[in-house]
Structures are given as structure tokens and as C-alpha cells.
User: Fold this.
Amino acid sequence: MQVASLVPSATETLFALGLGDSVVAVTHECDYPPEAAELPHLTRSVIPDGLSAAEIDREVRERTGRGEAIYELDREVLARLSPDLVVTQAVCEVCAVSYDDVRAVAEELEPPPRVISLDPSTLGEVIAGVRDLAEAAGSPEAGERLATEAADRIDAVGRAVAGARRPRVAALEWLDPAYAGGHWVPQMIDLAGGDDALGLPGEKSRVVSWEEVEAGQPELVVVMPCGYDAPRAHEEARSYASRLAALGADRIAAVDAAAYFSRPGPRLVDGLELLAHLLHPDRVPAPPPGRSLALEPAVS
Assistant:
């Protein structure tokens, strides 16, 4: 079976399932595992490079407000490759090609591929999506193994933090304007042994004022700009250091959001373990270096 992935999280999942050889094309943002980046690209962003956080937000809002897409799909490449299965999503209009556009293009192909959409809002739905994707790709046993491994690691975190004091956490997935992390992020904070000061499990990310963030009295602020790695998130956090310091948190950490928080794939479990260590370093071992960077000073 030949599979075209229009979502970075689906690409990661397919490779984690051992189905990398079946993937024939990916998006321009699919950078994990490294070999995925070498595959033909089916998309490109229409947002110019080099914009600030505020400018990116404005571009996205204006384009979506006009009903315009953020990504363009290369129909010719998709038609030439003629995949059996196309994997997309409809949960976030900023994260992938429009689901309706994908369906329309798929129906023009001969033979038309099967199109599945993975649209999780919680960690449990992410794991269920692993099984669904494996089933669609003809490898249900691999899906069951990967889902079971993820569930076991989640349970291990729960055991490690059981009974510990639960610090208050503000997860910010954008800084200009400030966005409170939503979807699976509040649940990850809860499972990691913290209390989310801003978000609710399964709800969408939302714009918040800095006054609201401060009123949440966070002890830990996690800066996780959507799609950014840890160094870029740290650079962004430094640009807003005075605002972040004014929140009064004990600690501020910039994390690799692209790898461990933004994309609803298997590496969310790594993100959970990272959060658990940030919250309870005496109970949860430190993850490999580079996944988070502290912002100093945390309070001023």
C-alpha cells in the first residue's frame, strides 16, 4: 500500500508503526524522522518567511477570515504518485491543507484513494488514532503494539507523580497574542501532576490576556509556540522576557513544541514525560538534553 501523509503527526506515526517504506509523499513540514524529509513534498505554506509572532498571527487570521487556505496542495505530484491512502486532518485549519480541498482532489484521481482524517482533541483520541491509522494502512497489529506501549508509559508517569503536590501551570502556545494551550495539552499537564491555570482538556487553544495569565498564579510557565523547536521557543521567550517575568512564576521553560506538544502523534508521550520532570524532578527522570531550555531570570 502507498500512503500520502498531509499531516506531520501522521507521518511520524506511520514511521513509528514500521510503515515508512509505504509513505510516498509528505508535507513540507514533515521533518521527523529525518528520512521523511527526503520524500516528495505535497504542500507549501503561503505565509511569508521571516515574520514576527504578531505578523504570523495577523496573516493567518486575515487569510482564514477571507476563507483562504494557509497551505497549498500540489495536485500534480499527488496525481503522479497515485497513493492508495491519503491521511489528513480537520481539527486545525492552521495545521494542514483544508480537508475539503483534499477530498475534492482525491475524488478527481483515478483510481480515487481512500482519505482518512485524524482529528484528536485528547491524548486518548491520539492513541485511538494510532490504531485507526494502522488499520487503514493494513497493519493493525503494529497499531495495537504502539498504542499499548504509549499507554504503559502514560501509566508509569501517573504512578510516579501520584500523591505529589500539584503546581499550577500556564502553557502558552503563542506569545503575541498570548494563546493558552488547548486540545490535549491541559490533559498532559494533569497527567504530569500539575494543574492547568488556563486551559480545559479537549477544548481549543484560545487567546488570553497577560492579565488573565498572571491571575492564574502559575508556578511554572511552559512556552511552547506551535511548531517551534526548543532553541526557537527560547529565543521567542527571551523576546517577551519582561512580560513572562511579570507573571511571577517560579520557573519558565521553553520546550520543543514541534516535537512533543504541537503534533498529535506518538511523541506526545515524550512531552508528557518532559512535563512530569519539569513539575516533579525528584520523581521523574530528566529527558534527553535539548527538549527544554530554562529562561533566566524567571522572576524579576
